[in-house]
Every structure is written in C-alpha cells, then in structure tokens.
Amino acid sequence: MKEQTVEYEMKTIDIAPFSDIAGEDVVSFIFEHAPRKVTTRVAKALDHYVRATMLIDLDEEMGAIRLIAAEEELVVAIFEWLKLNEDRFPEHRDFVRKFKNHVVKLSFYPTLAQFRFILGDMLAHGFTMEGLEDVLNWTAMPVIDGKEIKLAIIDGKGEELIRHNPLAVSISRDDIPDEKIVETLLKEFTGLVERQQKKTLKAFLLERADFRNKLLYASDAGSLEMADRLVDLIDEFKQTYHDLLWTLAVLIGAEPAIKHWGLVSQFIALYRRALIEAGVLRADNTVAEAE
After folding, report:
1. Is 92 exposed, middle or buried (0-12, 13-18, 19+ CB in 10 A)?
2. Strand order of the sheet with strand 138-145?
3. pLDDT, tens digit, 9 for 90 and up, residues 242-287
4. Assigned domain for 291 exists
5. Is residue 287 in a domain?
6. CA–CA separation, 59 vs 233, rounded Å?
7. What is the superkingdom listed in this entry's lineage (predicted)?
8. pLDDT of residue 125
C-alpha cells in the first residue's frame, strides 16, 4: 500500500486515517494549499481522531470526547479560512470569531448535513445550468484541477461535458421565491430534527453541544454514562469528517461567483438562523452572549 504522508511543521505526518475517509487527493490538497492557521487545525483533528480509535474498550468516554474535538477542530479550520478570505465570502464575523463556543462549532455540521441531503438529491437527479437544460442523462463529480476544485459534468456516455465551479450553484424551488428559500430550508431543518430527534431544533443543538460536558463533569443528578459504543460512534463520525474535509477543500479550491449569491451565501444564512434558534445570536444578528 502506498504510504500517505505529508511534510508538516518540520515533520512527516501520516494522513492515511483521514485519506481513508475523504480521499488522499482531498487531504493532500488541503495541506498543500491551505495556510498554517488552517492546517494546524486539520492536523489536530487528525490527531484527535487517531487517538480516539486507540481508546476502544479502554476509555470509551474519552474516545467520544476526542471524536467531538476532532469535529470542532475541522469546523475551526473552516472558520479560519473564512476569516482569511473575508473579501470572497458573505459577512460572517459575528459567529466565526466565537470559535471557542461549543454551540457555534457543533451547530455547523447539522446545518451542513441538511445541505448535503439537498445537494445529494440534486446530484442524483440533476439540476439546471445555463446551456445544459436539454441534457437529460448526466452526472456530476467533483475533481481536483490543479489548484482548483471543479464539478465535472458527465453525460450518459461517460463523456465530460464541462467543468463547473461547484460554488456557482444556488438551491432553488420552482414554487418558492429566492428570498424565501432560506426560510423554507429552516422549516425543513426544524421539521427533520423534530421527526428524528423528537425535540426542537434549539434543544437538539444545545444538547449536542453539551454532550461532551456531561461526559466530563458530574452534576447534582450524578454523572452521564455513554450508551453508545465507541466503535459505532467512530463509524458515525467518519461521515462528519468526510463532509467537513470536502467542504474545506472546496472552499480552498473554489470561490463564489457572486459574493452574496449561491451555496455559501445560502448556507451561512441558514447557519445564522440556526444560531439564532439556539440563542447564540439575536434576531438582529448581534451576539447574544458575552465573550
């Protein structure tokens, strides 16, 4: 098997654990093209994940805490990229600068997962792009093209038609005005959580953020014992890491066609609404909590 390593911080680190999840080309792309403020977080996330796998049947709770920490570090890596590229992305200072807040970090992936469900359906059934309206049988596949990440559009015969900017896409519905899309996505997000988790979106996000604290600390009611097996949690978190690594790679390798339009703008708007629901931001987008 080919050794999967990168030179980092004057040492060689093994990227195989993350490569097995997201692909060696994606992980190598991040370390090659992201600045140090970003790659330090990815490297630490990788370290947490590897150490978590070593704790199976030894310290299950600490293993779970390391899995959560790895997720948080990947989210912070994305935040650091956004902060370094403020001119390319919509306004986001109010939440990315609160990267020490667990609710802020652990609300990111559930929001991203909502987008993944939508985009997964779009990629499976197609979506409209100018000039390709009459193409009925095609698929889309992300590819690394030098220093960029593109979306390769492939027809039914396997021929590549065009390479498209993956961020130059916007979620739309025939019967919903564009200005109402985020509100619709929020309602769908809230409904999904209520059906699957049997709780409000606010309760779900707050409990998700507080889970690590309940594992670490006792309360007047006692201490929490983890019901899940660490090996099962590791399998669940692999999807989380996959999506976060790909998100980071796409942000590094592409940029929005228009600053306040497209997937990034829509995601940040939905994420902002989720943080308002969780009580981190006020409805006027001011910070609801003291630093």
Report:
1. middle
2. 138-145, 148-155, 160-164
3. 999 999 999 999 988 887 888 889 999 999 999 999 998 887 766 6
4. no
5. no
6. 13
7. Bacteria
8. 45
How many CB atoms lie under 10 A from the CB of residue 5?
14
Task: Please state, in angstroms and rounded to a whole number, the distance separating the CA atoms of residues 27 and 250.
Answer: 11
Q: How confident is the model at residue 291 (pLDDT cuts 50, 70, 90)?
A: very low
- Per-residue model confidence (pLDDT) at position 218: 61
CA 291 – CA 270 distance, rounded (Å): 23
Q: Cβ neighbours of residue 186 under 8 Å, at least 6 residues apart?
A: 270, 273, 274, 277
Token pair belonging to 106: 């652990």
Q: At what angle do helices 230-253 and 36-53 cross, to 10 degrees?
A: 160
In a domain, 289, yes or no: no
Residue 187 CB-half CA count within 13 A: 5
Provide the domain limits for residue 206: 5-278
Predicted local distance difference test score (pLDDT) of residue 214: 87
Within a domain: 52:
yes
The DSSP string of the chain is: ----EEEETTEEEE-HHHHHHH-HHHHHHHHHHS-HHHHHHHHHHHHHHHHHHTTTTT-HHHHHHHHHHHHHHHHHHHHHHHHHTGGGS---HHHHTTTT-HHHHHHHHHHHHHHHHHHHHHHHH----TT-TT--SEEEEEEEETTEEEEEEEETTS-EEEEE-TTS----BTTB-GGGHHHHHHHHHHHHHHHHHSS-HHHHHHHHHHHHHHHH--BTTB-----S-HHHHHHHHHHHHHHHHHHHHHHHH---SSTTSSHHHHHHHHHHHHHHHHTSB-TTS-BSS--
Structural domain count, the chain: 1
